[in-house]
Amino acid sequence: MSNQTGFKGRMADAVFAVRPAILLIFAIGTIIMGFYMAQLRVDAGFKKQLPLDHEYMQTFLDYEREFGGANRIMVALMARDGEMFTPEFFERFEQISNKVFLLPGVDRASVRSIFTPNVRFVEVIEDGFAGGNVIPADFSPSPEMFDIVRSNIIKSGEVGRLVAEDFSGAMVWANLLEEDPSTGESLDYQDVADRLESIRGEYEDERYSVHIIGAVARRPECTRTASASTRLISRRALRPPARPLSSCSRQARLPY
Prior knowledge:
Blueprint: H1 2-17, H2 19-38, H3 55-62, H4 64-67, E1 72-79, H5 87-101, E2 120-125, E3 128-133, H6 143-156, E4 169-175, H7 189-203, E5 208-213, H8 219-238, H9 247-252
Antiparallel strand pairs: 1-4, 1-5, 2-3
């Protein structure tokens, strides 16, 4: 027993003899870990959520460039009164389509809306087939032109896809690339999410609502949740421990 006590005492003396060095090591380790913790960023990259090693996903990656990816964003403009065939709606929706087209990381060839030239209609006439853009090149807001556009939308087969079935709104589709073509770097999803939210803030009001669908649309919510969790953990860690009640205090607080 005395030998164990003596050994423990010698160990304690040895540790306390070099306690400045031990404290310095812990301080350096804390600073290093704090530095790397500050570099952590929420990365909601689309492919990071997929099991890329699975054979089905390998096939998807092989043909992604030919058939387009699944990392899609959709921005819909809805008229609260249920009528989209108004000059103001078409002006707003054209501006939204252009802004989505110019978002960083968007595959320009994949953008589809009734204002893009890749959305067309085909009809059978006496001489064969006829077709054209859903929005004619000479489009100007007028009741007659709105009737033509409505007919073109129906003939294009986009009702229920790019246009609501009750003609209360329309949608623009776009695929996102993992790398920004303009910079060659990984796509900054937070920047794209911020730009989408700015579109919502600019065009949503008491007459129109803007709806954003896609993995990137969840990025602000993930960031807010992560920030709130970090603040909560920091407050709990820095909060001083509660002082235990003494026996006299406990007795004084008893209800009897």
